[in-house]
Each structure stands twice: as C-alpha cells, then as structure tokens.
Write a structure and sequence with these properties.
801 residues, 15% strand, nine-stranded mixed sheet, alpha/beta, globular
C-alpha cells in the first residue's frame, strides 16, 4: 500500500472520518497515524536489538524538551518528506497546510529545551540507545499575544486536540513521595537504616514518544511523566457530602505536571517547582532501576547499564535520590552506593549568572524532602572532610564549597550538589567552560581538574536546514550530495569552492530572497508590518533577558532613525529589524523592553520622512515553528549578549547554518563560530569578558559614559520622551550588563555592516562561508563528544526488517 492509500485508510479507521467530510486537522491526524506506525516499526526493532546486546544506554534528564512539530521532522528522518508531499498533492491537499495543523508541544522555555530536543535527535542518528526523561506538562510555555505593544500571556493548550505521537503507558508508573518524616532502626546485621514515611504520594505515569534517527533503523524514546493521584476519587468524602474533597487529592496531585515552570516568586510557586524537579527525577531513576533489574544484573552494576546526564541543575536532586534508592530501598552500603552514584551521573552546567544557579531554602527542602536533606547533610559532611584534608586550614574555601550555604540564610546549593555527586562536569562552549573553571566552580576545579570538560553545544542540520530551508538544502545537495546532513563538518567545506562561482552566488541569493518573501508575508499577517524583502533582515529572536541586550539593539535603531532625520537624503541601507521572543511572566524589565520595541517601531514605521527605508517588526509567539520561518530568512544575526554571560547560545548556530552573518560579542559559542567562519566573516564588537570583569572591578559608572557621548545622551532622551523615562533613568543609574559601555562600539560595527551589505557579492561570499564552515556545530558532533569523553558509550546500529 502506498503512502496516500495508507493515509486514506488511517483517516477512515484511525480518525473515523470520510474524506469528503474531513477537516485539515483530520488529514493531519491521518498523516500522523501513518507516520507513527512506521516509527514504531523502528522502535520495536530497536527494543529487539537491545535485548540481544549488552550495551550501556544514556538517560538524559531535562526539565524541558522543546521538540517542535513532529510530522515534518519524522517524515524527513524516515526519508519520506517528498513522498509525503506527493501523497498530499494526489489527495488534493496542500502539504504545507497539513503541516501547519500541528499544535507545537510547548514543553520548554527556549535554548535549554531546544538543545535537549536536538540531542535526542542526534542520539538516535548516531545510533546510541537513549531515553530522554522529563515532565508531560499539560500546559506548556504560554502563548504570547501582543496587546497595545505589551506582552500578554495566554494559556498554551497544546493538548486540546490530543497528541498522536505519544503512547500512554499506565502500566509504567512510579510512586513519588513528599513531606512526612524519617524513621531509623538497626537491621539484623547491625547496620544503621533509615525509612522515609512520606505524608503524601503521587503517581508518575509514563507517556512515550519515539524519537527517530535520520535514515537509520534506530528509534530512541522520550518518556515524559504525568502526575496522578493514587486514588482519583474519594467515595467516602463524596458520600458524606464533601463533593469538593472527593476530588481534592486528584487536583493537588495533578498540579505537579500541570504547567511548565510556575511563577516561582510566591512561596507556593517555589514549592511547586521543587516538587516538579523531584517528581520527574524520582520517576526517571526508579524507571532506570526497574529496567536494569529486569536484565538480571545486580544493582551494584547500575552505572554499567546507565550513563545519566543531568541537563542543568533542575534534575540535580538525582544525586540524593539515587543514594536514597541504593542505600534505603536496596540496602547497599553508603560507600559503594556513593561510587555507583558518581560513576552513573554527569552534570552539564548551563549558566554563569549567579542568580540562575539554583538554591533552595533548607526549610523548604527539608519539609518537602526530609530524607533527601539528611542525605545531603551526610554527603556534605563527608565532602567537607575531604576538602579540609586536601586544603588544611582553609576554612574560607570550606565555606565557599559547602553544599549548604550558611552565610545568607541556610540554602542547598544544587550546582554544588551536582558537582560533588557526579564524575564529570561540562560547560557548553569553550569560553563558558573556561569561566566555569576559573570563576564559577573554581574551587571544585582546583580539587578535581580531571572532572571538568567542555562540550560545545550543537543543533541538528536536519530540522534547522533540511526541513526549515529546503531551497538551501537542495542547492547544497545538488553540488555535493546529501552526506552533509549527517557529516556536515567533513562535507560542507566542499561548498567553499563555489563561493567564487557567480552563478552559484546568484542561486544562493535567490534562495535567501525567496525565504525573505515568505517571512515578509508572515510579518504583514502576524505583526501588521509590511516590509520590503530586498531590505537587510536584521534579526534578534531569543528569550528576553537583560543580559541578551535586546535594548542595546533598540538604542541603535533609535540612533539610526535620528541620523536619518538629521540627513534625510543620506544613503541609508534599507533595513528591517525583526525581534521575537518571550519574557518570563514575572520579569518586569524584560517585558518593558518588549514594550519599548513596539513603541520605537510605531514611531519609525509611521514616520513618512523615513520613507519605508527603516522598519521594526516584532514576530509574536516565537517558538520552534516560527523559528523555522525566521532563521532561513535572516541576513544579519544579532548575538550581542554581554561577554561572559551567555553560556553558549544555539540560535547563533542556526542563523549561521542558514547563511546569516553574525554581529556579536566574544561571548558563548560566538567565540568558536568566529574562529570557524573566519574573522573577516563575523562582525565583532564590544568588551571582552576580561574587560567586563576589569570595568566592574574598578567601578563602572554608566552616567559617565553618557556624559562623554552626547549622541548617546540624545538617543536616551528620545527613548525617555516615548514614555520610558524611568527605564532610561534606571539604565543610566545602574547598567549591570554594560549596554551603554558597548553602545558606541556596537553602533560603529553596525555602520561597517551597512557598508559590507552594499557590496552584494562580498556579502554573498560571507554568507556562503558562514553556512559551510559551521559543520562542527552540529549536535551530532556534540553527542559524539559526550559519548567518547563522558558517557563512554558506543553506537548500536539497528537493522529494520
């Protein structure tokens, strides 16, 4: 049966609709059923191979998995994307409209969750058995609506029409306890034992989504946990007239997996967030222990079966939970249990910002996880004895390294717990890893230098070029074949020679222009801003945060606008500034920057003196789906975070893969991107991380910068006149991310970018060099680095019958 016939059959017998009555969403569901069936063939083949092989698998624990829409990506990985397009056409359907029916699972905020998704794709593609563990949030990250220039958060009901990609596994469920007390006793062998008696218990139920590798037989698994009550209905309460109480336990239990990252400003939000972290970590570890024991192997060999990666500090309670399972539940002595725990677990740090290094008040941690707090205390006692033995008399170091902070209210430092309780700690870009060793975790590096690694992040070229930018993918494949999709670092450099071919450069520009026309249509529809596709598309799309400095970009827009008013006949490069991204609901400063963008855009777009040469557009509700439209259309990629603040970034890689030129600081992976593409193909500006530290050390006074730069003062005065006087005054008084210090260098760099843009052939060559020299930033390379240096795992090829 061909694909089109299978889709019609699935529509009839899977969706229950006649073709004559089917909606576009019905057809999407039929497509999904057919594709899922082929995916499950590979998943079953992978399971059968695992049963015959003794291999170490990877468990990737992450609070976020921003997978993006599944249908197109799965068709691509199956090698059926073009066949799917032909099948849709033969059925009288618009294939792109069918793809657009999919509700994107909003199971992540941004880079962290998108990285986890790329890693799952790459783990399957490089044929390493793996399970991604996380939470099946009923409501994902909010949908963003712009009203009167301000962000408004709307509930993300991604499950409203069901999810055809997941399989509910009610038979795979684990109990998770909270609160209560601990009891101790001495067992028959004279050993001190502890029993945790939780005050309440919830059930974590598995929901599985197969994750395909690209054109291989392997299919790995994303296993997300949904929280349910042990008993969902209390008949006794109902029979006595307590109708609300009859379902109260169900409501309280299910709150744990209700929403992605609750607002943790109130105490209740903080507690729920800790509950979420423990919930999925506990379910994951119990699941791994169950699978390990099913092989008949002793639990002492757990670390030989599983390499467990903690994606940031969210799952770092795994250190205490695995110790609890081994010592309390399975009777293994402390010392061997500790060796198993450290051998199994590894930790990825994703931030240098002190406020983002998670800590929990001891009172909250102990009330919610009393046994885990006891275990943390014991880990800390033994660890600090080790520190004192290594660095005698250095109590300052002991205090800095302690897992429990004592100086500002007692708090559990989760990054310290993760560092102490794992065998490997890695940063996610060369600069970030260096700063971790020199600053953030310097004391730990001094003690265990061999544990610290760098694994630079990556993104999958399958989704971010082949699927998002089919015109560019076809152009590249037409010259060098398609091996670059799995071996980009080796294959893409062959495109360099075509940069000197005028016909190829012209074809390259035509692909970019077609992508820009498509995005221009979206901007007119979604943002209400008509733009000229022939203009430079200057794009900054990412999560809103002050350190990412979207407001630096806005200040330069105002500066450009003022210069145009001063010289209306000047030779201004037509430019469209495109923004996108969400601000955390409680992050007032980030939301104010979004409001500022819209206020400036209203002035610039509405001024007839500009003559349409400058435009500002905000693409609402930035997510994976919208990113697939934006990255291929960008000419200039804004990566302008304060040096030393961004761990890596992955948007910078997606832009470069699609031929955008980066304007940026030496921050995160920008450093390595610049090295890869060549200094002449990267627009560099700004203070370095060392210079930022030096300025901060001697005292940075932003007001002095404004006094020295009259044009900057005029820009700020203009911004203030738009109703943002408090914003400007706050920036002049306190500029922690050196926006004003970097303004002049940024504006000068943008002038150089404009001059380069005027030389069309030079710009095209730079675009080609960016795309063909960033193969090392494939997530396949990242996974191979983890596999070789940290996990010590090998590929397991799967043959599909």
């Amino acid at each position: 049966m061909d694909l089109a016939e299978s889709i019609v059959e699935a529509l009839r017998y899977g969706v229950g609709k006649l073709p004559s009555r089917a909606t576009k969403h019905d057809w999407y569901m039929a497509f999904a059923h057919v594709v899922r069936e082929r995916m499950l063939e590979r998943w079953i083949a992978t399971l059968e191979t695992l049963q015959r092989r003794d291999v170490r698998g990877v468990a990737y624990l992450s609070a976020e998995f921003l997978m993006g829409p599944h249908l197109g990506n799965n068709l691509l990985n199956l090698g059926l994307l073009e066949e799917g397009r032909r099948a849709a056409s033969s059925l009288g359907l618009d294939f792109d409209e069918i793809l657009a029916q999919e509700e994107e699972p909003g199971l992540g905020n941004g880079g962290l969750g998108r990285l986890a998704a790329c890693f799952l794709d790459s783990l399957a593609t490089v044929q390493i058995p793996a399970v991604g563990y996380g939470i099946r949030y009923e409501f994902g990250i909010f949908d963003q609506v712009i009203r009167d220039g301000a962000q408004v958060e709307v509930t993300d009901k991604w499950l409203r029409y069901g999810n055809p990609w997941e399989i509910c596994r009610p038979e795979i469920a684990h109990e998770v306890g909270f609160g209560g007390r601990t009891e101790n006793w001495t067992d028959e062998r004279g050993r001190f034992r502890v029993r945790w008696v939780p005050a309440r218990v919830v059930i974590g139920v598995a929901h599985d989504t197969p994750v395909l590798g690209y054109r291989v037989g392997n299919a790995n698994l994303l296993r997300l946990w949904k929280a349910e009550a042990c008993e969902s209905f209390d008949f006794q309460a109902f029979n006595t007239g307590d109708y609300w109480g009859a379902v109260d336990d169900k409501v309280v239990s299910e709150n744990i997996s209700k929403v992605l990252y609750p607002n943790d400003e109130p105490a209740q939000g903080k507690q729920l967030r800790l509950e979420q972290q423990y919930f999925f970590t506990c379910c994951a570890l119990k699941d791994m222990v169950t699978m390990h024991r099913s092989t008949g192997a002793p639990l002492e060999a757990f670390h030989e079966t599983w390499a467990v990666q903690l994606n940031d500090t969210h799952p770092s309670v795994a250190v205490a939970e695995l110790m609890r399972l081994l010592v309390d539940e399975h009777g293994i002595d402390w010392d061997p249990a500790w060796e198993i725990t450290r051998a199994a677990l590894a930790y990825t740090n994703h931030t240098l910002l002190p406020e983002a290094l998670e800590t929990w008040p001891v009172e909250l941690f102990g009330a919610l996880l009393p046994r885990h707090l006891e275990i943390v205390y014991e880990i800390n006692r033994r660890f600090l004895d080790e520190v004192r033995a290594r660095f005698p008399g250095d109590e300052g170091r002991v205090s800095r390294m302690s897992i429990v902070e004592e100086s500002r209210g007692r708090r559990v430092r989760m990054a310290h717990l993760a560092t102490v309780g794992t065998h490997a700690v890695n940063g996610v870009a060369a600069l970030h890893s260096d700063l971790l060793k020199r600053e953030t975790l310097a004391d730990f590096h001094a003690m265990w230098p061999e544990r610290f690694h760098n694994v630079t992040n990556g993104v999958t070229p399958r989704r971010w070029v082949a699927l998002s930018n089919p015109g560019l993918a076809a152009l590249i494949t037409g010259r060098i074949g398609d091996r670059w999709l799995v071996h980009p670092e080796e294959e893409l450099p062959a495109i360099e020679s075509y940069a000197s071919d005028a016909a190829f450069r012209r074809a390259w520009r035509e692909v970019k222009l077609a992508n820009k026309r498509t995005l221009a249509e979206e901007l007119a529809l979604r943002a209400g801003v008509p733009v000229d596709p022939e203009s430079m598309f200057d794009v900054q799309v990412k999560r809103f945060h002050e350190y990412k400095r979207q407001h630096l970009n806005v200040l330069n827009i105002v500066a450009t606008y003022l210069r145009l008013l001063d010289d209306p006949g000047g030779n201004v490069v037509p430019r469209v500034w495109i923004f996108g991204g969400k601000a955390a609901p409680g992050y007032a400063a980030a939301k104010e920057i979004i409001r500022l963008i819209h206020a400036v855009g209203a002035v610039v777009n509405g001024d007839p003196r500009v003559g349409g040469r400058l435009k500002v557009a905000f693409f609402p509700d930035f997510n994976v789906t919208n990113g697939q439209k934006i990255y291929p259309a960008a000419d200039l990629s804004e990566q302008i975070s304060t040096a030393g603040k961004e761990a890596s970034g992955t948007g910078n890689m997606k832009f470069a893969m699609n031929g955008a030129i980066t304007i940026g600081t030496l921050d995160g992976a920008n450093v390595e991107i610049r090295e890869a593409v060549g200094e002449e193909n990267f627009a560099l500006f700004g203070l370095t991380a060392e210079e930022v530290a030096a300025w901060a050390a001697r005292g940075y006074h932003p007001r002095e910068v404004v006094e020295r730069e009259p044009f900057l003062a005029r820009v700020l005065e203009t911004v203030g006149s738009l109703g943002f006087r408090p914003f400007v005054e706050g920036l002049v008084a306190n500029d922690p991310f050196f926006v004003l210090a970097d303004f002049a260098a940024y504006a000068a760099c943008q002038d150089r970018v404009s001059e380069t843009w005027r030389d069309t052939e030079r710009w095209t060559r730079m675009s080609i060099f960016n795309a063909c020299r960033v193969g090392r930033f494939s997530s396949d390379r990242s996974i191979r680095d983890y596999a070789e240096r940290i996990w010590k795992v090998s590929p397991m090829p799967v043959e599909v019958p």
